[in-house]
Specification:
Distance between the termini: 65 Å
CATH superfamily of the domain at 3-109: Conserved hypothetical protein from pyrococcus furiosus pfu- 392566-001, ParB domain
CATH topology of the domain at 3-109: Conserved hypothetical protein from pyrococcus furiosus pfu- 392566-001, ParB domain
Order of helices and strands: EEHEEHEHHHHHHHHHH
Helix content: 40-55%
Shape: elongated
Structural class: alpha/beta
Mean pLDDT: 81
Strand content: 5-15%
Length: about 300
């Protein structure tokens, strides 16, 4: 009798092997009826129709997907493999092979979800940070706190999973850029490689200080470009937004945002005169920064210096 022919092992019989996440492998491999399996929408990513079709076509061609089994928790909720699960159901497969795991807490399960899904296929930022928030990731906690803090200028302005607002919504990627470059005063924009270093910095920095720095940037940004996305669409695009953040840090570093040196209102008026065109969007980040710098320096006695 091979593994696929084995009868499901009762939930209370498990191997007590525990890894660094506290995950217990209940049994390594068994078959479960699709009707008993559920999609946990609390932190699952949205179904990617292109990916779903690819797996569904693979099932039609080979009879099943040539990948690893689906991972579910002890409530029979899918942790990894929701596309495979949905594709199997669409193709009339009623029983599928699964590995069932349990965790000591929801936070560890969410952390495993982010690690496992990022290993196979990259999560969208909005899905990654929602799961990371459940897992109590320090940067994710800051992200969510800024969105719900009455004293934060980002309140109700961040695009979070399951939220909706009439105001402009900054993407989670843009907010991570703000937190790392503005809030934590780090030059690197957030990415998975720098996450550990930035996370450590976040733990060492008081939340109130991060919020104050973010608020200073948001006030400047809203004064320059409005708080409504439809009024100034281009600066809100991820590529252009990175250049705006770099330009702001350049102004701040060289004391151009200190009232009295050049005048805060003068700076706002100057930036508001800049016309963002499609050509600006197509330019690389350095080109965008240089365009903003050159515009700002025109006819000015005190000039911003930017070196690549």
């Amino acid at each position: 009798m091979n593994a696929l022919e084995e009868k499901p092992v009762p939930i209370f019989n498990y191997e007590q092997t525990v890894n660094e996440l506290g995950m217990k492998v209940i049994f390594k491999y068994t078959e479960i009826p699709c009707s008993q399996i559920k999609l946990n929408l609390e932190y699952q990513r949205c179904i990617d129709n292109t990916r779903l079709k690819k797996i569904s076509d693979s099932i039609k061609k080979y009879g099943y997907w040539p990948q690893e089994v689906i991972i579910i928790n002890n409530k029979y909720e899918v942790i990894d493999g929701q596309h495979r699960f949905v594709a199997a159901k669409q193709n009339g497969i009623n029983i599928i092979p699964v590995s069932i795991v349990s965790f000591p807490c929801k936070e560890n399960e969410a952390k495993f979800f982010t690690l496992k899904n990022n290993y196979n296929t990259s999560l969208k930022n909005i899905d990654y940070w929602h799961a990371a928030h459940i897992a109590k990731h320090p940067l994710a906690n800051i992200l969510y706190s800024l969105n719900y803090d009455d004293d934060s200028l980002l309140k109700d302005m961040i695009a979070l999973k399951g939220t909706n607002t009439e105001h402009s919504k900054f993407s989670t990627a843009q907010c991570m850029l703000m937190i790392s470059q503005i809030g934590l005063n780090l030059g690197d924009r957030w990415n998975k490689q720098t996450d550990e270093r930035i996370t450590q910095k976040a733990k060492e920095t008081a939340y109130i200080a991060i919020k104050q720095n973010i608020n200073l940037f948001c006030k400047w940004f809203y004064d320059c470009f409005s708080s409504k996305k439809r009024d100034n669409p281009i600066p809100y695009r991820d590529k252009s937004f990175r250049s705006i953040v770099t330009f702001y840090r350049l102004l701040k570093k060289q004391n151009f945002l200190i009232t009295g040196l050049t005048g805060y209102r003068t700076i706002i008026n100057k930036i508001q005169q800049y016309t963002f065109t499609n050509d600006f969007v197509k330019t690389d980040q350095i080109g965008q920064i240089m365009a903003l710098v050159n515009h700002f320096n025109k006819n000015k006695r005190h000039k911003v210096i930017y070196t690549v």
